[in-house]
Specification:
Catalyzes the Claisen rearrangement of chorismate to prephenate and the decarboxylation/dehydration of prephenate to phenylpyruvate. The chain has 367 residues and is α/β, with parallel strands linked by helices. The chain contains 12 helices and 15 strands. It folds into 3 domains: 134 residues, Periplasmic binding protein-like II (D-Maltodextrin-Binding Protein, domain 2, 3-Layer(aba) Sandwich), CATH 3.40.190.10; 75 residues, D-Maltodextrin-Binding Protein, domain 2 (3-Layer(aba) Sandwich), CATH 3.40.190.10; 81 residues, 2-Layer Sandwich (Alpha-Beta Plaits). The model has no long low-confidence stretch (mean pLDDT 93).
Length: 367
């Protein structure tokens, strides 16, 4: 009985080779177009330099990325396509000048991740030890922009950042909303071999229930950042850290348990601070600081003008004022740009009620 040979696959191989050749052709065209885009960016830079225009335009970048998402037809998800264009834009800008970004360090922290989400990787990253240092670096002009956390969906406001915003002349130029996923990581072979746990106090608060259920009998050591927790766990085989995926990758720590945060929607909001005013992008937010007289009805008179003007408030947080005991200031976020007629009407109404208003900045809404 004769045995049949393998099925013919010449047609399949020919089709694969044809597709590979087409991919190579497309790659060459993409590369040519990216370089053509970069050449136009450099020409615009020369025009801006001659006319004294702004070097970096956050509102312009936000508009470009919004159009990228709108015209995307797949199969790439919108967020992946936006990420690709973010890196192209970052690299094009770096041909003119590489931005220097100060952020609450160290490297591999969530704030570091927020820098890369907002600015891409073609920037000079400058980690510093405290939120106050971030503001000082930008105020002194040794950094172009700074990135700091301002609130977490689980733990609320980051008061150190709000306190700095009270006294600075810097503008809020942008925001990043970053989904926060915490992982248990260690060189230990399993969770039963862990004797010590390093973690940041905010991380502990965001993972409290899981940690009590699974790590309750261990020694818990608080550290200054998630990245520092990972660094310490790297040096101690019987220790573990709770931190983000970037810290696990940066320090080469295996993840023993992923997603240990109690709230699956755990998100931290970061703001970008800089010296420049940001124009309208078409989808903006405005942050303001209001100091109202300490008398009955003050808060009502602060809030009423926004309702009358049809302006939506998205956040209100109070902080003790530095001027006198038991006086408070209010941080408000609202929909719209400070140039919008409705926003201007609301702010004028707040001031007419006897409160002092400081506009911290208008900026494109985080995607």
């Amino acid at each position: 009985m004769s045995q049949e040979g393998p099925p013919e696959n010449g047609g399949t191989d020919a089709r694969q080779e044809s597709l590979r050749q087409e991919i190579d052709r497309i790659d060459g065209e993409v590369q040519r177009l990216v370089n053509q885009r970069a050449a136009h960016v450099l020409e615009i830079a020369r025009i801006k330099e001659a006319n004294g225009g702004a070097f970096y335009r956050p509102e312009r970048e936000a508009q470009i990325l919004a159009r990228v998402a709108e015209r995307n037809e797949g199969p790439f998800p919108d967020q992946d396509m936006v990420r690709i264009f973010r890196e192209i834009m970052s690299s094009c800008l770096a041909l003119e000048r590489r931005l220097r970004i100060a952020f609450l360090g160290p490297e591999a922290s969530f704030t570091h991740a927020a820098v890369q989400v907002h600015f891409g990787h073609a920037v000079e990253e400058h980690p510093v030890r405290t939120i106050a240092e971030v503001f000082r670096e930008v105020e002194a002009g040794t950094a172009d922009y700074g990135v700091v956390p301002v609130e977490n969906s689980t733990e609320g406001a980051v008061n150190a950042s709000l306190d700095q915003l009270m006294g600075t002349n810097l503008q809020v130029c942008g925001e990043v909303a970053l989904r926060i996923e915490h992982h248990l990581m260690s060189h230990a072979p399993d969770m039963q071999s862990i004797r010590r746990l390093y973690l940041h106090p905010q991380t502990q608060a965001q993972c409290r229930e899981w940690l009590q259920d699974h790590m309750g009998g261990l020694e818990w050591v608080e550290v200054t950042s998630n990245a520092e927790a990972a660094r310490r766990a790297t040096a101690e085989p019987d220790s573990a850290a709770v931190a983000g995926a970037s810290a696990a990758e940066f320090y080469g720590l295996p993840v023993l348990a992923a997603g240990v945060e109690d709230d699956p929607e755990n998100t931290t909001r970061f703001v970008v601070v800089g010296a420049q005013w940001v124009g309208p992008s078409g989808n903006d937010k405005t942050s303001i600081l209001v100091s109202a007289p300490n008398r009955p009805g003050s808060l009502f008179h602060v809030l009423q003008p926004f309702s009358l003007a049809g302006v939506n408030l998205t956040k209100i947080v109070s902080r003790p004022a530095r001027s006198s005991l038991w006086d408070y200031v209010f941080f408000l976020d609202l929909d719209g740009h400070q140039e919008d007629a409705a926003v201007q009407e609301a702010l004028e109404g707040v001031e007419a009620g006897g409160a002092a208003v400081k506009v911290l900045g208008s900026y494109p809404r985080a995607r």
